[in-house]
Design goal:
single chain, Fimbrial protein, Immunoglobulin-like, mainly beta
Length: 171
């Protein structure tokens, strides 16, 4: 009889314990996981990244044209988008005389892409490569500046200015 009472008591205890376990409230939380990859394009000038840096672009007197001129090495765009637009934000290119007088040198600026020259005040759509090692003449651009007049037509002295190249990723 003691065994029966023991079994009945044990059964009742297990039944009560299982009810208590089932009535325990559980905490649950849902995790919403997301990621965002922002478009990134880096300008490479002569094989080096130029984020936030100035590019020194001196103009020399051309041996044939006798004008102030310079053509850049290839510029590549490297990033995580397929294309980007480039344009100079300046509407005119003038080098100002260092002493502050009214003398200036008017320039024409152009992009050279796939051996075709285009005004640099007009948007140029370019391919963006994934790695710099993919760079070639087919996906790079050159920038060219030439003075309006012969170098001898300008007053002697030092001239300078800064122009802004804007790159806009195409999404």
């Amino acid at each position: 009889m003691i065994t029966n009472n023991y079994i009945v008591g044990l059964g009742a205890a297990i039944l009560l314990w299982s009810q208590a376990v089932l009535s325990v409230t559980r905490s649950q939380v849902d995790l919403e996981i997301s990621a965002e990859s922002i478009p990134k394009v880096t300008i490479y000038y002569d094989g080096k990244p130029v984020d936030g840096k100035d590019i020194d672009f001196p103009l020399a007197i051309g041996s044939t044209s006798r004008k102030f001129e310079n053509t850049s090495p290839l510029i590549h765009l490297v990033g995580n988008v397929d294309q980007a637009d480039i344009i100079f934000t300046d509407k005119e290119f003038k080098l100002l005389h260092a002493n502050g007088d009214q003398n200036s040198i008017a320039l024409t600026g152009s992009f050279i892409f796939k051996k075709v020259e285009k005004e640099s005040t007009q948007t140029l759509r370019m391919p963006v490569i994934k790695k710099l090692t993919q760079g070639s003449t087919e996906n790079g651009v050159k920038i060219r500046f030439v003075s309006e007049h012969l170098a001898v037509d300008y007053a002697k002295g030092k001239y300078a200015n800064t122009f802004t190249l804007m790159v806009s990723p195409i999404l």
